[in-house]
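Sorry to interrupt, but I need a hand with the structure work. Can you supply me with one protein entry, sequence and fold together? No commentary is needed, just the two lines. Leave the record below and I will have a look.
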Amino acid sequence: MQKETLTEILQISQCYVSEILSESNNEIHLRLKKYSDCKSICSGCEHIHKKGFHSSYEIIVEDLAISGRRVFLHITKAIYRCECCKKVLSEKIDWLYIRVTKRYAKQVYRLTGITTNKEAGWYLGIDDEKVYRIDKQMLMDVAKEKLVPVPAAIHISIDEVSYKKYHRYLTNVIDTDRKLVIWNETGRKAEVLDKYYEGIGEENCGKIKSVAIDGARTYISSTQKYALNALIVLDRFHLVKKLNDAVDTVRKEQLYLGRKNANEELIDLTNCKQRFLLLKNKDGLTDKQKDLLKRLCEINEPIFKAMLLKESFLGIYECNTVESARDYLKTWIENALKSELNIFKAIAESFTEKLEYILNWFRCKISSAISEGFNNKIKRLKRMAYGYRDVEYFKLKIHQHCGLLNPKLEIAR
């Protein structure tokens, strides 16, 4: 290829290909030179250098491949003693980005948005440590544009997700209208969520109409303090999940007693393989599963009561008004307190305390189920990378895969 043709293909501002250093089937090395009228800019204060030349050095920069061959650019950078900031610094070159071109860095950023750093590095022929450095810097730069100031929303969902063992959590705030993660921070205390509300300001806090949560006291107290006009909603998804967990707790207790008393039939009907009999909706059960569930309820009263309480609770969502739902819920709470099942008594006491938040679902049918969906996606992201040592990088990756930093959003626009 001719040098003029390569200069035209590269389209690098203020530079031209002065020499083809080497060519092979896999790589091509090119030397670039700046045009004579090109001005040198200080990398510290962006002052245009007119004098103060100190020295120079050559660097090798990787660019996007041409015809399947990796392209390496050799360019000389000048060092100046800046007369403005009084420092000795190398000149600023706009198209450079951590020893690669900006367009190459953008390619790395797009690849890591759909796969792991290791796979992206294999595809590009670079090590995953270099991918990490480029990707993190790109994410930090894009975050300054899209996450500062803190994005506000009208309807939000708040939930935590574990990012490390020993109860290390991240709090995620999701815009349920756009279905995107808009903010996250380490921890799950009230002080952590306070940072989000303080970040969006008092005016935007006043515009929040609803907040879906899983019932965590810390999130409730923070929301009550800042989002004064918002409805705090304990949605259907988390309530049903809580009841399913309670039924499973009763199953485990009865399985323990069955093993203790050598009751083989009870053991067969309550072992781990059969737990889905209790968790599935009745409409989703096969005829065989229905028979097994019926027999289990016949021989074990606690499980029968647990199933009855779970199924009867779902009837609340057939109510058409807030008042009818209130009456139904109060009746259910009374029955749960009389059930002699400790786990359901605890749930009944919790529901009594948070009764208005449960009823808010009938006023604004927002769901935090989207938070659980994103939590699963975040856990998958963590598993794919075999964990993240850098939690700040992990927070940015969540925004890249689930939020405003997703490169697919730019393509969609």
Notes: The radius of gyration is 30 Å. The longest helix spans residues 236-260. The chain has three domains: 1-94, 155-233+367-412, 236-363.
